[in-house]
Amino acid sequence: MEVIKVDIVVVGGGGAGLRAAIAAHVADPQLKVALVSKVVPMRSHTVAAEGGSAGVIRSDDSLANHFDDTVSGGDWLCDQDAVQYFVEHCTAEMVQLEHWGCPWSRKDDGSINVRFFGGMKVQRTWFAADKTGFHILHTLFQTSLKYPAIQRFDEFFVVDLVVEDGRVRGVLAIEIATGARFLLESKAVILCTGGAGRVYRQNTNAGIVTGDGMGMAYRHGVALRDMEFVQYHPTALAGSGILITEGCRGEGGILTNKHGYRYLQDYGLGPLDPWPRPKAMELGPRDRLSQAFWHEEQKGNTIGSPHGHVVHLDLRHLGAKKIHERLPLITEVAKTFAGINPVTHPIPVRPAAHYTMGGIASNRHTETSLAGLYVAGECSSVGIHGANRLGSNSLAEIVVFGKVAGERAAAYVRDVPEAGSRTIRQQAEAAEQRVLELMGGDRGERIATLRNEMGDSMEAGIGIFRSASGMQATCDKLAQLRERYHAGIRLDDHSLSFNTEWLTAIELGSMLEVAEAVAHSALQRKESRGAHVRLDDYQTRDDENFLKHSLATRNGDDPPHIGYAPVAITTSPPKTRSYGGAGQQVVLT
Amino acid sequence: MPIDTTTRTIEIECLRYDPQTDTEPHFSSYQVPFSDDMSVLEGLQYIKDQLDGSLTFRWSCRMAICGSCGQEVNGVPVLSCHTFLRDYFPHKLRIEPLNNFPIIRDLVIDQNDFLDKLESVKPYLVTKLEKPLAAGPHLQTPQQLNRYYAYSQCINCLLCYAACPQYGLNSDFTGPAALALLHRYNADSRDQGWQVRAEVINADAGVWGCTLVGYCSEVCPKAVDPAHAINQNKVNSAMDFFGVLKLMNKGGTE
Amino acid sequence: MSRYRSTAKTAARTYMQPMAGWWTKNPYFVRYMVREGSALLLTAYALVLLVGLWRLSQGAAAFDAWRAALASPLSVVFHAVGLVMVVYHSYTWFDVMPKTAPDQPIDPKLITGGGIAAAVAVSVLILAALLWGAP
Predict the structure, then answer these.
(1) CATH of the domain at B42
(2) Residues in chain C whose beta carbon is closer than 8 A to a beta carbon of chain A?
(3) Least enclosed by CB within 10 Å: which of A12, A515, B44, B220?
(4) Has residue B1 been placed in a domain?
(5) How many CB atoms lie within 10 A of CB C107?
(6) How many CB pairs lie under 8 A apart between chains A and B?
(7) Residue C62 lies inside a defined structural domain of this protein
(8) Which residues contact A22 (CB under 8 A, 6 or more apart)?
C-alpha cells in the first residue's frame, strides 16, 4: 500500500469537487489539496446537466422570490437558514463562473440572458444553450489547471474513509489502472461524490452515479437524511432514460397526451390561459408533472411505445431557429436516440428517476456529524431541496456549497493535530483486505442480476406513487439482495489492471445500502409531501407529525434505523403548496 | 418513425489485452442479440453483463457528452454510445481501443498525455487585471460569443487524436483538441492571453506539427473543427513571427 | 491542478500499436497521401519547364530538341499523369482552403466551390486563348 500525506482530500471531480478544491487552495495556498476522482474530472456527471443554474439577476426578481420558490417547491421541508444562505450566494457564483470563462448565453446587448424553469415566479435560470452542466464542468476543470498546487488523482476509486478518535483521517483508494491501493492520509475529507440515481433501473443518470460517498459516510455512522425524496424528472426518453431538459418547457415547449390534449390543466396546474405564465401548466414543478403523467397512464391517455408509455413534448411551435439556438443538444439527442427531429415531430417522453434530494446529513456549513468530513453537491443533504428540488437549483448548489466546503475544510485543518499513523494504517489495511476479497469472488451470482433486480424493485416500490405494501415488498427484496451479495458474487475478472468489474462490485455494495436507506425512509414517512406521494392511508401532508427530516442510520446487518430531526423554519411557515390558478402572461426571453 | 425492436444477432469482435498476462493483444468474438435502438456501447455492456465480465471499456453518460467511450469501430474512431449496431448488421464489428494511444487494458487507452497537453495550452481566461465579482459579468454580445463558441464544444473524447497520423507518428505534437481549446480562449473577447499561449502555437509541436490531414474534423462528434482552429493559427503564427500581430496590437498582455 | 504521476510498483505495462502501414488502413489517409504525393509530380513538371528555359538559353537547336523530347510517348504519359495529379491537387487545395481561412460567416462549401469555379474558368480562358490566339 502506498501512503501519501496531504491536508485535504476532495473525493469527486464534478462541479462541487472542483469548486471545493479551488476554494480550499485559494483560502490557504500552503495547504496540500488532493482531488481524487474515479473518472477524469471532465467526465463527471455534472457534464450531463442541461437546462441551467439559478441566480437572481433580473430587476423584477428578488432573493425573497428565489427563497419562496425554493421553500414552497420543497414543500416546506427545506432548512430555511440554508436556503437563505444559498439564494444570497447563487448570483455571485454565477458571476464567478462567468469570470472564469463560462460561455453563458447572452442577450443582444451582451448581458446575461435567463430562462424560465418550473416553479419559478420570474426567469432566473442562467444557461449556456442546453449544455449548461457541460460548460460549467469544463470551465471549472480548465480553470483548476491554473492552480498546479492542487494535485489530481485521476481514475482513483475511493473505497473507504479512515476514521480515528471520531475524526476523519483520510481515504483508501484504488489506482484503477494498476489496482494498486493508496492510503491518502489527510486532516479533512470533502465528499462530492454525486447522487445515487443508478439504484433505479430507468434513470437519467450516468453509469458512475452509484452513491459511493453516501455509502462510505453511512458505513461510518453518518446519517443519510431525507432519502425518501427521489426526484422523477418528467421528461426523459423511454428506455434509456436520457434526459430531455426542463429548458424545453422553459422555452415554451408543451406536453400533450395521445389526444393532443394538454393534460396538465387537469392536475392542479391549469387553467390553460393566459399562457405562458409562471408556475403554471408546463412551468409547474417536477414532482407534480411526473405525478400527472402517472395519472394519465392510469387513465389510458398515454401513448404506447416499445419501452413503456409516453406523452409528447412538443416544441414545433418554437420554430427551427429557436430550437437550434437554445436546444441544440436536445435536437441532437432526440435525433440520435429517438429518431425524432423536434422541429417537425414531438419528442416522446416519460418520467425517469433523476435526482437524490436527500443525502449525507450536513448543516449549512457543509459539516457532518463526523469531525473533518465535509460534503457538497448531490451526495449531501445541506437542507435546500426539501421534499422536491426546484429545477436549476442543483447546479447552483454545487458551486455555492462546494466553495463553502472548501473554505470550511481549509479553516478546520489549521487546528487539527497530527494523527498517530499506525492505527490509521491498520484500518486502511482492513479495508484493503475487504475489497481484495471481493475481487477474488469466483462463485455466486452475476453483478448484473443483483443490480437489475434492485433497480426493478426500487421502481416498483419507491416510484412516483407509493403504498405501504409496495414499499414493504421493496424493503424485503433489498434485504434479500444484500444477503445474496454477501453470500458471494462471481467475477470473471481477477486482474489488477483496470478491473472495472471489481469496481462495479464495490459500487453495488454501496448502492444496496443506499437503496435500503431510501426504501425504509419512505416506508416510515406516513404522509405525502413533495416527491413522496402515497396512495394508501396517507395521501396528504401531515405537518403535525412529519414536518421533520428523516435520518437513516446504519444498523449493522439489520435494516437502517430511521430517526427524525427538526426542520429549520425562519420566515416562512408551512402553507398550502399551490400552482396554476390565475396569473399574468409573461414574455419568454 | 417508430423504432423496430425485433431482435437479431450480430458478431462483435473486441481487442483484448491484459498487461498482467499478455505480451500483445488478441481478439475475442461474441454473439450479441440486439434491437434497432441498441448502441455499440449497449452491445459492449451486454457482453460485460452476460457473457464476459472481464471485457474492459470506459463509459459513463451514454448520451455523447462525457467523452468517455471513444473506440475504433471497424477502424473508424467513434463514440460507442452514439453509434448503432443496426448500421453494421449483417456484417460484424471489430472494436479496438483508440489509435495512437498506449493501451492499458482491452479497449481502455492511457489518456494522460492529452491531459498534460491540455494543461500546457493554458485553457482558462488570462486577463491583465482581475475583475472583482462585485463588478458583475463582462458584456459579451452573441457575435463575440460565436467567435469561440464552436471551439468550446470539445468534450475531450480524443477521437481527433486517434484520427491524427501526425500525432501517431510524433506524440510531441500538441494535437487537435488541445490546440482547438487554445484557440477557444484566444478567440474569447474576455481573454488577453494570446502572448502567453504563443510559445505553444509557434513551436514545431504546435500548429506547425499539423499537415492538414483533416480527418480530426471529420470524426469530431461535436463539430468542433480542430483542423480549422489549427490552420487559421498558422496564419497567426506566421504574422507573429514577422511582428505583424504586435503592430496590430493583438498581443494582449505585454 | 497537476496530475499525480503514479509511483505504484505495479505500474501499468501498456501496449503501443505499431504505426507501420498506417496510411493504407483508411481511405481518407490514402487520399491524403495521394494529395501530398501529387505535389511531387507538380515539382517534376516545374523542373521540366525549367529545363526548357535552360535549353532556350542555349539557342534554337537546343530548344527544338527539348520540344521534340516532349513529344516522345514516355513524355506524353508523364504529362497525362501530371495533368490528372495537378487537377486532383488543385481540387484538394480548394477543398482544404476553408480550414486555413480565418473564421468567417461564409459556408465553407462556397469557398471551396468558388475556388474550383475560378480555377476552371481561368483554365478555360487560357485554353481558349491558346486555341484561338496562337499563331
Answers:
(1) 3.10.20.30
(2) 1-4, 6-12
(3) B220
(4) no
(5) 10
(6) 173
(7) yes
(8) A140, A143, A144, A147, A150, A406
Q: A touches which chains (3+ CB pairs under 8 A)?
A: B, C
B192 and B155 within one domain = yes
Rounded CA-CA distance A557/A479 in Å is 9
Q: What is the tally of structural domains in chain B?
A: 2
The verdict on residue C7 lying in a domain is no
Pairing mode, if any, of strands A151-154 and C2-3? parallel
Residue at which a domain ends, from B78, B109, B140: B109
Chain C CB contacts of A154 below 8 Å: 3-4
Q: Rounded to an integer, what distance in angstroms lies between the CA atom of residue B184 and that of residue B180?
A: 6
User: At which of B109, B126, B141 does a domain end?
Assistant: B109
Across the interface, whether the CB atoms of B54 and A100 are under 8 A apart is answered no
Domain(s) of CATH 1.20.58.100: residues in chain A: 431-549
Report residue B219: phi and psi, to 5°.
-90, -10
CA A246 to chain CA centroid, Å, is 15
Closest CA to A516 of A479, A543, A465: A479
Q: What are φ and ψ of residue A555, in 5° steps?
A: -135, 60
Comparing CB atoms, the residue among C3, C16, C96 nearest residue B212 is: C96
- Of A66, A138, A233, A541, which is the active-site residue? A233
Taking CB atoms and an 8 Å limit, are C4 and A34 in contact across chains?
yes
Per-residue pLDDT of chain A (589 residues; tens, 9 = 90+): 999 999 999 999 999 999 999 999 999 999 999 999 999 999 999 999 999 999 999 999 999 999 999 999 999 999 999 999 999 999 999 999 999 999 999 999 999 999 999 999 999 999 999 999 999 999 999 999 999 999 999 999 999 999 999 999 999 999 999 999 999 999 999 999 999 999 999 999 999 999 999 999 999 999 999 999 999 999 999 989 999 999 999 999 999 999 999 999 999 999 999 999 999 999 999 999 999 999 999 999 999 998 899 999 999 999 999 999 999 999 999 999 999 999 999 999 999 999 999 999 999 999 999 999 999 999 999 999 999 999 999 999 999 999 999 999 999 999 998 877 788 999 999 999 999 999 988 889 999 999 999 999 999 999 999 999 999 999 999 999 999 999 999 999 999 999 999 999 999 999 999 999 999 999 999 999 999 999 999 999 999 999 999 999 999 989 999 999 999 999 999 999 999 988 888 988 8
User: So what CATH class is A431-549?
Assistant: mainly alpha
Which pLDDT score is estimated for B244?
Answer: 79
- The answer on B215 and B118 residing in a single domain is yes
Catalytic site includes residue A249: yes
Please indicate if any CB of chain A lies within 8 Å of the CB of B122: yes
Partners for C (CB, 8 Å, 3+ pairs)?
A: A, B
Q: Which of residues 154-193 of A touch B (CB under 8 A)?
A: 154, 177
In a domain, B254, yes or no: no
Q: Which of B76, B169, B231 sits opposite C100 (nearest CB)?
A: B231
For chain C, the domain total comes to: 1
**Residues B128 and B200 occupy one common structural domain:** yes
Domain membership of residue B53 as a residue range? 8-109
Q: Which CATH number characterizes residue B222's domain?
A: 1.10.1060.10
Closest CB from C2, C4, C10 relative to A496: C10
A134 phi, psi to nearest 5 deg:
-55, -50
CA distance C62 to A336: 68
Q: Which residues on adjacent β-strands are paired with residue A36? A: A11, A153
pLDDT beneath 50, residues of chain C: none
The verdict on B13 touching C (C-beta cutoff 8 Å) is no
CATH code of the domain covering residue C46: 1.20.1300.10
Q: What is chain B's Cα-based Rg? A: 21
- Asked if the Cβ–Cβ distance from C19 to B169 is below 8 Å, we say yes
CB distance A152–C10 less than 8 Å? no
CB contact under 8 A, A179 and C7: no
Contact flag B212-C100 (C-beta cutoff 8 Å): yes
Q: Is position A233 annotated as part of the catalytic site? A: yes
Pairing of strands A533-534, A548-555: unpaired
Q: How far is CA C130 from the centre of its chain?
A: 24
Q: pLDDT tens-digit profile of B189-206?
A: 999 999 999 999 999 999
- Taking contacts as CB-CB distances below 8 angstroms, the residues of chain A near B120 are none
In chain A, which residues fall in CATH 3.90.700.10? 233-352
Amino acid at the residue A464: I
Q: Based on the domain organization, do B77 and B172 belong to the same domain?
A: no
Residue C54 lies in a domain: yes
In a domain, B253, yes or no: no
CATH architecture of A233-352: Alpha-Beta Complex (3.90)
Of the residues A124, A135, A138, A249, only one is catalytic, namely A249
